[in-house]
Amino acid sequence: xxxxxxxxxxxxxxxxxxxxxxxxxxxxxxxxxxxxxxxxxxxxxxxxxxxxxxxxxxxxxxxxxxxxxxxxxxxxxxxxxxxxxxxxxxxxxxxxxxxxxxxxxxxxxxxxxxxxxxxxxxxxxxxxxxxxxxxxxxxxxxxxxxxxxxxxxxxxxxxxxxxxxxxxxxxxxxxxxxxxxxxxxxxxxxxxxxxxxxxxxxxxxxxxxxxxxxxxxxxxxxxxxxxxxxxxxxxxxxxxxxxxxxxxxxxxxxxxxxxxxxxxxxxxxxxxxxxxxxxxxxxxxxxxxxxxxxxxxxxxxxxxxxxxxxxxxxxxxxxxxxxxxxxxxxxxxxxxxxxxxxxxxxxxxxxxxxxxxxxxxxxxxxxxxxxxxxxxxxxxxxxxxxxxxxxxxxxxxxxxxxxxxxxxxxxxxxxxxxxxxxxxxxxxxxxxxxxxxxxxxxxxxxxxxxxxxxxxxxxxxxxxxxxxxxxxxxxxxxxxxxxxxxxxxxxxxxxxxxxxxxxxxxxxxxxxxxxxxxxxxxxxxxxxxxxxxxxxxxxxxxxxxxxxxxxxxxxxxxxxxxxxxxxxxxxxx
Length: 573
Known about the structure:
The protein folds into three domains: 3-209 and 396-572, no CATH class; 237-300, Regulator of K+ conductance, C-terminal domain (Alpha-Beta Plaits), CATH 3.30.70.1450; 313-389, 2-Layer Sandwich (Alpha-Beta Plaits). Helix content is 59%, strand content 12%. It has helices spanning 3-12, 14-29, 39-54, 61-87, 103-126, 130-140, 145-155, 161-198, 202-213, 246-251, 290-297, 307-310, 331-335, 375-385, 397-413, 427-444, 453-475, 479-486, 488-512, 517-527, 531-541, 547-572, and strands spanning 95-96, 99-100, 228-234, 258-265, 268-271, 283-289, 302-304, 314-321, 344-350, 353-355, 368-374, 386-389, 415-418, 421-424. The protein has a five-stranded antiparallel sheet. The chain has a five-stranded antiparallel sheet with strand order 10-9-11-8-12. A two-stranded antiparallel ribbon has the order 1-2. The longest helix has 38 residues, at 161-198. It is elongated and about 90 Å long.
């Protein structure tokens, strides 16, 4: 198809142009160099700007708004349990900025606030308009959602429509120019500059933390390695546990949780209770973490292949953690309780990321923990910990629709006076708040407002990528002119807006909060929601442990940086 014919086709079918931009964005987002890539959202922005160079595609404001509101609600719903619980003072103690919050959370608050302040100061020094200022802020902090909140804030300003359209275009241009160093800057701060300033060897620091949390090296994804196994062993005539009760025998494996679920005696398979007395010649089915079976039991016992004995009905079940008597407890504490016999936690997900599993790992509200073990015991433990997550659970569209409506309505009714202007909170911020509230409420009542993880992922990933792609289409025709107008000052300003908040967070975390250095570096990546920086830090340290700092900060980074787009426009306008 000739070039001009393609342009005409896209202008006549803007809906197809959006899907083209999304597809190209995800294609570009997959390109990586040493683990770093632009990601699908920034890829969609670049694709929109490119298509907009040769085709003036009309973009529907209504379609953009719907997609962005779905994204904002999904983000609020995801981080609501962690965000509001920390604000209310739940979790590990640590005093920061006047409220009791965990130190990682404090970094998630300090860094975004420093970024907003730095962006406004730099924009005023450079004489940037509100569009360039907001785009510099979103690109330098790699927080693309701020494009949307800034655009809505600009559309609410009492200025002519053509001026609004120009300023919205400037947001996308500045974001595209500042994003590259925004991402690279955070990676450099967390992997090179930060460790140098703190004077640490990240690998040695990671080793110490792993020892503290009782973490063992696990098998990799895609291998045959399993965290928890079930094996059969024969009790010899001179065996130490011969004549002991099951409970006493299980306690002998010091430092490990191991359970005898069944035994074969005189040819018959019997269920084992804690009071069952073991005899020489019994073959027992033992479940434990693989390290215990291989390292502690294996060298001293004869393993037996007994298919019937090992045919124990087991279950692996994802559980949404919400019970007050479970939140904040370590796995060691929970494992010592009655009713957890034979049940293990094989995986913990927090804010969509895997948390290292060890005896001192603590469960937090909103975590998704995978329980494995005998089916009845797992079902009972899941009911005590929160609510089981099943693939068949449907989306609560009633709550989804009404919450977005009521949140948007609240956003239009709540307003503040800035100078001579009367500015509303905005529909987008109201929707974000609604998502936070619904997510938090579900953490208290898990049967309420269920939205499957897959549905949330679609809302947040496709919603934002399509929205940002349409912003790029809108800005494409003015891209070259805007770059010429902004000049090199915008790029330099973006570097400052990236580095200054990171340095502030580093100093506050080290000298005020006295955080563990590796967790502080993880929190710096989380405060600017930069997953690539976390991955680079994990690779450099040879350990996933920094994710504990990241997950504490990232909910606050998402919320404060997203709303920061609105604040920057207000202060610059």
